[in-house]
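Morning run. Coffee first, then this:
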Amino acid sequence: MTRGSVQVVFQRGLAAAALAATLSGCSMLPFFGGGVEKPKPAELQANPATLGIRPAWTQRIGAVSFPLEVNVTGQQLALASSDGTVAVLDASSGRDIWRASVGAPIAAGVGSDGSTAAVVTTGNELVALSGGRVLWREKLPAQAYTAPLVAGKRVFVLAADRSVSAFDGATGRRLWSQSRPGEPLVLRQSGVLLAVGDTLVAGQGGRLAGLNPSNGSVRWEAPIATARGTNDVERLVDLVGPVSRVGNAVCTRAYQAAVGCVDAVRGTLAWSRPARGTEGVGGDDRLVVGSESDDRVLAWRRDSGERAWVHDKLLHRGLSAPLVVGSSVAVADSTGLLHVLSRDDGSLRNRVATDGSAPAAAPVVAGTTLVVVTRSGGVHAFVPQ
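And here it is:
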Protein backbone atom coordinates (compact mmCIF):
# COMPACT_ATOMS: atom_id res chain seq x y z
CA MET A 1 0.00 0.00 0.00
CA THR A 2 1.55 3.30 -1.05
CA ARG A 3 1.88 6.39 1.11
CA GLY A 4 -1.21 8.58 0.96
CA SER A 5 -3.49 5.58 1.46
CA VAL A 6 -2.03 3.95 4.56
CA GLN A 7 -4.96 2.28 6.23
CA VAL A 8 -5.32 1.41 9.89
CA VAL A 9 -7.81 -1.06 11.27
CA PHE A 10 -9.02 -1.69 14.80
CA GLN A 11 -8.43 -5.11 16.34
CA ARG A 12 -11.24 -6.86 18.17
CA GLY A 13 -10.14 -10.21 19.55
CA LEU A 14 -8.35 -12.18 16.85
CA ALA A 15 -9.78 -10.59 13.72
CA ALA A 16 -9.40 -7.20 12.10
CA ALA A 17 -12.66 -5.29 12.39
CA ALA A 18 -13.91 -2.11 10.77
CA LEU A 19 -11.80 0.32 8.81
CA ALA A 20 -10.83 3.09 11.20
CA ALA A 21 -8.89 5.71 9.33
CA THR A 22 -6.89 6.83 6.36
CA LEU A 23 -3.65 8.51 7.33
CA SER A 24 -1.95 10.87 4.90
CA GLY A 25 1.69 11.75 5.42
CA CYS A 26 2.58 12.44 9.03
CA SER A 27 -0.60 14.35 9.88
CA MET A 28 -3.08 12.68 12.22
CA LEU A 29 -5.78 15.33 11.77
CA PRO A 30 -7.89 13.42 9.20
CA PHE A 31 -8.19 10.57 11.71
CA PHE A 32 -10.05 12.80 14.14
CA GLY A 33 -12.07 14.71 11.59
CA GLY A 34 -11.54 18.23 10.32
CA GLY A 35 -8.95 17.56 7.67
CA VAL A 36 -6.00 19.37 6.18
CA GLU A 37 -5.17 20.47 2.66
CA LYS A 38 -2.94 17.92 0.98
CA PRO A 39 0.48 19.35 0.05
CA LYS A 40 1.13 19.83 -3.65
CA PRO A 41 3.63 17.42 -5.22
CA ALA A 42 7.01 18.94 -5.99
CA GLU A 43 7.59 20.02 -9.57
CA LEU A 44 9.92 17.67 -11.37
CA GLN A 45 13.47 18.75 -12.08
CA ALA A 46 14.87 18.39 -15.59
CA ASN A 47 15.70 14.80 -16.41
CA PRO A 48 19.48 14.48 -16.90
CA ALA A 49 19.19 10.94 -18.36
CA THR A 50 22.80 10.18 -17.43
CA LEU A 51 21.94 6.48 -17.07
CA GLY A 52 20.35 4.73 -20.02
CA ILE A 53 17.16 2.73 -19.31
CA ARG A 54 15.24 0.92 -22.03
CA PRO A 55 11.76 -0.65 -21.79
CA ALA A 56 12.02 -4.45 -21.98
CA TRP A 57 8.42 -5.67 -21.90
CA THR A 58 4.96 -4.93 -20.52
CA GLN A 59 2.38 -7.35 -19.13
CA ARG A 60 -1.04 -7.05 -17.53
CA ILE A 61 -2.46 -8.44 -14.30
CA GLY A 62 -5.73 -7.30 -12.72
CA ALA A 63 -5.97 -4.15 -10.60
CA VAL A 64 -4.16 -4.35 -7.26
CA SER A 65 -5.66 -2.81 -4.11
CA PHE A 66 -3.94 -4.94 -1.45
CA PRO A 67 -0.34 -4.79 -0.10
CA LEU A 68 1.33 -6.76 -2.90
CA GLU A 69 4.74 -8.34 -2.61
CA VAL A 70 6.30 -9.22 -5.95
CA ASN A 71 8.26 -12.39 -5.23
CA VAL A 72 11.49 -12.98 -7.14
CA THR A 73 12.96 -16.48 -7.37
CA GLY A 74 15.73 -16.69 -9.94
CA GLN A 75 14.16 -15.49 -13.19
CA GLN A 76 10.59 -16.02 -11.95
CA LEU A 77 8.25 -13.24 -10.81
CA ALA A 78 5.23 -14.27 -8.72
CA LEU A 79 2.50 -11.64 -8.44
CA ALA A 80 -1.25 -11.36 -8.00
CA SER A 81 -4.25 -9.08 -8.46
CA SER A 82 -7.18 -8.24 -6.23
CA ASP A 83 -9.64 -10.32 -8.26
CA GLY A 84 -7.91 -13.56 -7.25
CA THR A 85 -5.49 -14.02 -10.14
CA VAL A 86 -2.05 -15.38 -9.29
CA ALA A 87 0.60 -15.40 -12.02
CA VAL A 88 4.21 -16.47 -12.37
CA LEU A 89 6.08 -14.66 -15.15
CA ASP A 90 9.44 -15.14 -16.80
CA ALA A 91 11.42 -12.01 -15.87
CA SER A 92 13.46 -11.94 -19.07
CA SER A 93 10.51 -12.03 -21.48
CA GLY A 94 7.38 -11.25 -19.45
CA ARG A 95 5.61 -14.36 -20.69
CA ASP A 96 3.34 -16.38 -18.42
CA ILE A 97 4.89 -19.48 -16.88
CA TRP A 98 1.49 -20.12 -15.38
CA ARG A 99 -1.60 -18.16 -14.32
CA ALA A 100 -4.52 -19.27 -12.15
CA SER A 101 -7.40 -17.98 -10.03
CA VAL A 102 -7.98 -18.74 -6.36
CA GLY A 103 -11.68 -17.94 -6.80
CA ALA A 104 -11.79 -15.12 -4.25
CA PRO A 105 -10.39 -11.59 -3.78
CA ILE A 106 -6.85 -11.49 -2.44
CA ALA A 107 -5.77 -9.65 0.73
CA ALA A 108 -2.06 -10.56 0.90
CA GLY A 109 0.60 -12.15 -1.30
CA VAL A 110 2.59 -13.44 -3.00
CA GLY A 111 4.97 -15.80 -1.24
CA SER A 112 6.86 -18.35 -3.32
CA ASP A 113 9.89 -20.65 -3.26
CA GLY A 114 9.84 -21.08 -7.04
CA SER A 115 7.68 -24.19 -6.84
CA THR A 116 4.80 -23.35 -4.48
CA ALA A 117 3.09 -19.94 -4.33
CA ALA A 118 0.81 -18.79 -1.51
CA VAL A 119 -1.68 -15.97 -0.98
CA VAL A 120 -4.32 -15.03 1.58
CA THR A 121 -7.88 -14.15 0.51
CA THR A 122 -10.15 -11.53 2.02
CA GLY A 123 -12.14 -14.43 3.46
CA ASN A 124 -9.11 -15.38 5.61
CA GLU A 125 -8.16 -18.40 3.52
CA LEU A 126 -4.53 -19.33 3.00
CA VAL A 127 -4.27 -20.78 -0.52
CA ALA A 128 -1.26 -22.64 -1.93
CA LEU A 129 -0.74 -23.15 -5.68
CA SER A 130 1.75 -24.89 -7.92
CA GLY A 131 1.98 -25.11 -11.70
CA GLY A 132 -1.24 -23.17 -12.17
CA ARG A 133 -3.46 -25.27 -9.88
CA VAL A 134 -4.63 -24.91 -6.30
CA LEU A 135 -2.96 -27.41 -3.96
CA TRP A 136 -4.89 -26.68 -0.77
CA ARG A 137 -6.81 -24.12 1.26
CA GLU A 138 -6.71 -23.51 5.00
CA LYS A 139 -8.89 -21.16 7.05
CA LEU A 140 -7.00 -18.63 9.17
CA PRO A 141 -8.28 -17.33 12.53
CA ALA A 142 -7.36 -13.73 11.64
CA GLN A 143 -6.86 -11.65 8.52
CA ALA A 144 -3.34 -11.30 7.11
CA TYR A 145 -1.90 -8.37 5.16
CA THR A 146 1.65 -9.74 4.84
CA ALA A 147 2.60 -12.11 2.03
CA PRO A 148 3.05 -15.69 3.28
CA LEU A 149 6.61 -16.99 3.42
CA VAL A 150 7.23 -20.26 1.57
CA ALA A 151 10.46 -21.90 2.75
CA GLY A 152 11.72 -25.30 3.83
CA LYS A 153 8.61 -27.06 2.44
CA ARG A 154 6.46 -25.02 4.80
CA VAL A 155 4.23 -21.96 4.51
CA PHE A 156 4.47 -19.36 7.27
CA VAL A 157 1.83 -16.70 7.92
CA LEU A 158 2.03 -13.46 9.91
CA ALA A 159 -1.52 -12.41 10.76
CA ALA A 160 -2.86 -8.96 11.60
CA ASP A 161 -3.10 -9.93 15.29
CA ARG A 162 0.72 -10.51 15.24
CA SER A 163 0.35 -14.29 15.49
CA VAL A 164 2.68 -16.45 13.41
CA SER A 165 1.61 -19.87 12.09
CA ALA A 166 3.28 -22.65 10.12
CA PHE A 167 1.63 -25.04 7.65
CA ASP A 168 2.86 -28.11 5.83
CA GLY A 169 3.61 -27.01 2.27
CA ALA A 170 2.29 -30.21 0.70
CA THR A 171 -0.94 -30.73 2.66
CA GLY A 172 -1.79 -27.44 4.39
CA ARG A 173 -1.84 -29.11 7.79
CA ARG A 174 -1.27 -26.59 10.57
CA LEU A 175 2.00 -27.41 12.33
CA TRP A 176 2.11 -24.74 15.03
CA SER A 177 0.92 -21.26 15.93
CA GLN A 178 2.54 -18.66 18.14
CA SER A 179 0.48 -15.77 19.49
CA ARG A 180 1.26 -12.55 21.30
CA PRO A 181 -1.08 -9.97 22.86
CA GLY A 182 -2.60 -7.81 20.16
CA GLU A 183 -2.69 -4.01 20.15
CA PRO A 184 -5.96 -2.16 19.41
CA LEU A 185 -4.66 -0.86 16.05
CA VAL A 186 -2.82 -2.61 13.24
CA LEU A 187 -1.72 -1.44 9.82
CA ARG A 188 -3.44 -2.74 6.73
CA GLN A 189 0.01 -2.93 5.23
CA SER A 190 2.68 -5.52 4.59
CA GLY A 191 4.71 -6.46 7.67
CA VAL A 192 7.98 -8.33 8.10
CA LEU A 193 8.38 -12.09 7.62
CA LEU A 194 11.53 -13.73 6.25
CA ALA A 195 13.98 -16.57 6.81
CA VAL A 196 17.58 -15.93 7.86
CA GLY A 197 19.51 -19.18 8.00
CA ASP A 198 17.57 -21.52 10.30
CA THR A 199 15.67 -18.67 11.97
CA LEU A 200 12.22 -17.34 11.07
CA VAL A 201 12.28 -13.54 11.51
CA ALA A 202 8.94 -11.80 12.09
CA GLY A 203 7.87 -8.26 12.91
CA GLN A 204 5.70 -8.17 16.01
CA GLY A 205 4.74 -4.69 17.11
CA GLY A 206 7.89 -2.55 17.21
CA ARG A 207 10.32 -5.45 17.50
CA LEU A 208 11.84 -8.14 15.36
CA ALA A 209 11.47 -11.64 16.76
CA GLY A 210 13.58 -14.65 15.84
CA LEU A 211 11.55 -17.87 15.96
CA ASN A 212 12.41 -21.53 15.70
CA PRO A 213 10.69 -22.56 12.42
CA SER A 214 10.16 -26.10 13.73
CA ASN A 215 7.92 -25.18 16.67
CA GLY A 216 7.50 -21.38 16.82
CA SER A 217 9.45 -20.89 20.05
CA VAL A 218 11.06 -17.46 20.45
CA ARG A 219 14.86 -17.43 20.18
CA TRP A 220 15.35 -13.68 20.52
CA GLU A 221 13.64 -10.30 20.33
CA ALA A 222 15.20 -7.02 19.25
CA PRO A 223 13.36 -3.67 19.59
CA ILE A 224 13.45 -1.29 16.60
CA ALA A 225 11.11 1.22 18.27
CA THR A 226 8.98 1.45 21.39
CA ALA A 227 5.44 2.78 21.70
CA ARG A 228 5.17 6.45 22.62
CA GLY A 229 2.34 8.87 23.24
CA THR A 230 -0.95 8.45 25.03
CA ASN A 231 -3.44 7.41 22.34
CA ASP A 232 -3.60 4.31 20.14
CA VAL A 233 -2.47 6.10 16.97
CA GLU A 234 0.61 7.59 18.63
CA ARG A 235 1.49 4.18 20.10
CA LEU A 236 1.33 2.39 16.74
CA VAL A 237 4.86 1.13 15.96
CA ASP A 238 4.34 -1.83 13.65
CA LEU A 239 7.27 -2.89 11.47
CA VAL A 240 6.54 -2.54 7.76
CA GLY A 241 8.00 -4.23 4.70
CA PRO A 242 9.96 -4.53 2.60
CA VAL A 243 13.20 -4.96 4.53
CA SER A 244 16.83 -4.85 3.46
CA ARG A 245 18.74 -8.03 4.24
CA VAL A 246 22.47 -8.48 3.61
CA GLY A 247 23.82 -11.69 5.13
CA ASN A 248 22.67 -11.85 8.74
CA ALA A 249 21.87 -8.12 8.94
CA VAL A 250 18.17 -7.24 8.58
CA CYS A 251 17.25 -3.55 8.39
CA THR A 252 13.63 -2.49 8.72
CA ARG A 253 11.29 0.41 9.45
CA ALA A 254 8.95 0.92 12.38
CA TYR A 255 5.96 2.86 11.06
CA GLN A 256 6.39 6.61 11.65
CA ALA A 257 9.01 5.94 14.35
CA ALA A 258 12.42 4.57 13.37
CA VAL A 259 14.69 2.69 10.99
CA GLY A 260 17.06 0.12 12.45
CA CYS A 261 19.25 -2.91 11.76
CA VAL A 262 19.45 -6.20 13.66
CA ASP A 263 21.88 -9.13 13.60
CA ALA A 264 19.38 -11.91 12.93
CA VAL A 265 21.67 -14.67 14.19
CA ARG A 266 22.54 -13.17 17.57
CA GLY A 267 19.33 -11.16 17.90
CA THR A 268 21.17 -7.94 18.74
CA LEU A 269 20.25 -4.42 17.66
CA ALA A 270 23.07 -2.81 15.67
CA TRP A 271 21.47 0.64 15.54
CA SER A 272 18.15 2.47 15.41
CA ARG A 273 17.49 6.03 14.21
CA PRO A 274 14.32 8.15 14.44
CA ALA A 275 12.52 8.27 11.08
CA ARG A 276 9.01 9.34 10.13
CA GLY A 277 8.29 7.17 7.12
CA THR A 278 5.46 4.74 6.42
CA GLU A 279 6.99 2.50 3.73
CA GLY A 280 9.69 -0.15 4.03
CA VAL A 281 13.34 0.22 3.13
CA GLY A 282 15.82 -0.98 0.54
CA GLY A 283 19.57 -1.26 0.72
CA ASP A 284 22.85 -2.98 -0.06
CA ASP A 285 26.05 -3.71 1.84
CA ARG A 286 26.81 0.03 2.14
CA LEU A 287 23.50 1.81 2.61
CA VAL A 288 19.93 1.53 3.88
CA VAL A 289 17.53 3.77 1.93
CA GLY A 290 13.97 4.83 2.69
CA SER A 291 11.55 7.69 2.12
CA GLU A 292 9.99 9.83 4.84
CA SER A 293 6.33 10.77 5.09
CA ASP A 294 7.01 13.95 3.10
CA ASP A 295 8.85 11.86 0.47
CA ARG A 296 12.36 12.98 1.20
CA VAL A 297 14.56 10.03 0.29
CA LEU A 298 17.12 9.31 3.03
CA ALA A 299 20.17 7.06 3.02
CA TRP A 300 21.82 5.75 6.21
CA ARG A 301 25.22 4.05 6.41
CA ARG A 302 24.52 0.40 7.03
CA ASP A 303 27.36 -0.13 9.49
CA SER A 304 26.62 2.83 11.77
CA GLY A 305 23.21 4.33 10.98
CA GLU A 306 24.76 7.72 10.22
CA ARG A 307 22.99 9.70 7.52
CA ALA A 308 24.76 9.47 4.16
CA TRP A 309 22.61 11.74 1.97
CA VAL A 310 19.11 13.12 1.41
CA HIS A 311 17.19 13.72 -1.83
CA ASP A 312 14.44 16.32 -1.40
CA LYS A 313 13.29 16.85 -5.00
CA LEU A 314 10.35 14.41 -4.85
CA LEU A 315 8.40 15.90 -1.95
CA HIS A 316 4.75 14.81 -1.63
CA ARG A 317 4.83 12.66 -4.76
CA GLY A 318 3.67 9.47 -2.99
CA LEU A 319 6.77 7.31 -3.20
CA SER A 320 7.05 3.55 -2.98
CA ALA A 321 9.69 1.84 -0.90
CA PRO A 322 13.02 2.11 -2.74
CA LEU A 323 15.12 -0.57 -4.40
CA VAL A 324 18.91 -0.34 -4.34
CA VAL A 325 20.39 -2.07 -7.38
CA GLY A 326 23.98 -1.68 -8.49
CA SER A 327 24.98 1.98 -8.38
CA SER A 328 21.37 3.21 -8.39
CA VAL A 329 18.28 3.65 -6.20
CA ALA A 330 14.92 3.11 -7.92
CA VAL A 331 11.68 4.49 -6.49
CA ALA A 332 8.23 4.85 -8.10
CA ASP A 333 5.72 7.64 -7.46
CA SER A 334 1.94 7.96 -7.43
CA THR A 335 1.81 9.31 -11.00
CA GLY A 336 3.44 6.20 -12.43
CA LEU A 337 6.95 7.59 -12.82
CA LEU A 338 10.03 5.58 -11.94
CA HIS A 339 12.86 7.74 -10.61
CA VAL A 340 16.43 6.41 -10.67
CA LEU A 341 18.84 8.11 -8.25
CA SER A 342 22.56 7.75 -7.69
CA ARG A 343 23.36 5.44 -4.79
CA ASP A 344 26.42 7.54 -3.98
CA ASP A 345 24.81 10.94 -3.45
CA GLY A 346 21.08 10.66 -4.24
CA SER A 347 21.20 12.83 -7.36
CA LEU A 348 18.74 12.09 -10.16
CA ARG A 349 20.10 9.89 -12.96
CA ASN A 350 16.98 9.21 -15.04
CA ARG A 351 13.19 9.12 -15.01
CA VAL A 352 10.89 6.85 -17.01
CA ALA A 353 7.11 6.46 -17.21
CA THR A 354 4.93 3.40 -16.62
CA ASP A 355 1.14 3.72 -17.08
CA GLY A 356 0.23 6.76 -14.98
CA SER A 357 -0.98 4.87 -11.92
CA ALA A 358 0.60 4.48 -8.50
CA PRO A 359 2.95 1.61 -7.66
CA ALA A 360 1.38 -1.46 -6.07
CA ALA A 361 4.68 -2.60 -4.57
CA ALA A 362 8.31 -1.61 -4.32
CA PRO A 363 10.29 -2.09 -7.55
CA VAL A 364 12.09 -5.43 -7.80
CA VAL A 365 15.00 -6.74 -9.82
CA ALA A 366 15.42 -10.18 -11.38
CA GLY A 367 18.77 -10.64 -13.06
CA THR A 368 19.23 -7.45 -15.07
CA THR A 369 15.51 -6.68 -15.34
CA LEU A 370 13.91 -3.97 -13.18
CA VAL A 371 10.15 -4.47 -12.71
CA VAL A 372 7.41 -2.12 -11.48
CA VAL A 373 3.81 -3.26 -10.87
CA THR A 374 1.12 -0.56 -10.75
CA ARG A 375 -2.27 -0.32 -9.05
CA SER A 376 -4.03 -0.47 -12.41
CA GLY A 377 -2.41 -3.84 -13.11
CA GLY A 378 0.45 -2.90 -15.38
CA VAL A 379 3.68 -4.90 -15.11
CA HIS A 380 6.52 -2.83 -16.57
CA ALA A 381 10.04 -4.13 -17.11
CA PHE A 382 13.14 -2.03 -17.81
CA VAL A 383 16.80 -2.82 -18.42
CA PRO A 384 19.40 -0.25 -17.33
CA GLN A 385 22.13 0.29 -19.89
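The two ends are 30 Å apart (CA to CA). Good start to the day.
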